[in-house]
Write a structure and sequence with these properties.
Layout: H1 14-25, H2 30-49, H3 59-68, H4 82-98, H5 104-115, H6 117-129, H7 152-171, E1 192-199, E2 202-207, E3 213-216, E4 232-236, E5 242-247, E6 253-258, H8 268-274, H9 276-284
Parallel strand pairs: 1-6
Antiparallel strand pairs: 1-2, 2-3, 4-5, 5-6
Helix pairs in contact: 1-2, 1-8, 2-4, 2-7, 4-5, 4-7
The protein binds zinc ion (ZN) (2 copies).
Length: 288
Amino acid sequence: MRPDAPRPVRQEPREIVELRSLRTAHPELADAVDMQIELVTHQRRLQARTPTPVLTLSRTVVVARLEQGERLVDFEAIPLDWSAARQAVRATADILHRHNSLDGDDHTVITALVRDAQSFERLLRHWYAETSASPARRVNPADHRADYPGILDQVCALALRPFLARSAEAMTQGIDLAQWMRPYCPMCGAEPEFAAILADETRLLTCGRCEMRWPWLAVGCPWCLLTDRTRLRTFTSPDRRYRVVACDDCRRYLKAYDARGATRPVLPNVDTIATLPLDAALMQQGYG
Ligand SMILES: [Zn+2]
Ligand SMILES: [Zn+2]
């Protein structure tokens, strides 16, 4: 290449580009955006290094599991390299700490946990096992780790995402998720993190842990399963791009990107940050 030739520009992923423009449009979200860019960059790098797992479930088992509401990705099917996983938890905790989303004490506890290989492995197995049953049959997830900070769940979910996303990606090939019709993730069993409205009667739920997307009822609370429209309240962002459905029975809510007529598809890594002001408004109204 000639010395004066323009340097090739590495194309940034769409979500990073969108996060940067979100920061320009909403300087008040700059801190949250910066943290998200660091997290996403770290996750993408790790995911690129993570191998795609070889699937061991037969077609018959897959169909049976989908029918019975059992998630498809078993712990053993996650291409987990333990030392990479420990490093990922550590790096995630560092990023959250640097951006004041994880206090010093909690950061110390989490980094100590990561140093103890056996405890860490035990914890991760428990953490994943908690979501093996449908939410109605789940035991209190906090029991076995009452001594750990509450935010550990979130740290693990963020840190393990590259591994879980690889499994989900491999598993989803040739599978029709339309028959699942449950409000928790068909791949990893987690609760939905976000949603996208694709058409008047079509809503996708998205998983914050493995990035899977699957269709569910257009109207309904994914936590208590309420479908009575009079008890489900809808809030809309000023630009009408986001909608929140809040449940007056269980007081939880789900945010959604309204993709109808939009210029881009849902990008949960961007949309969860763009909707932080909605979270604040909802919390003020007593939802959580
Ligand atoms: Zn999932
Ligand atoms: Zn509810």
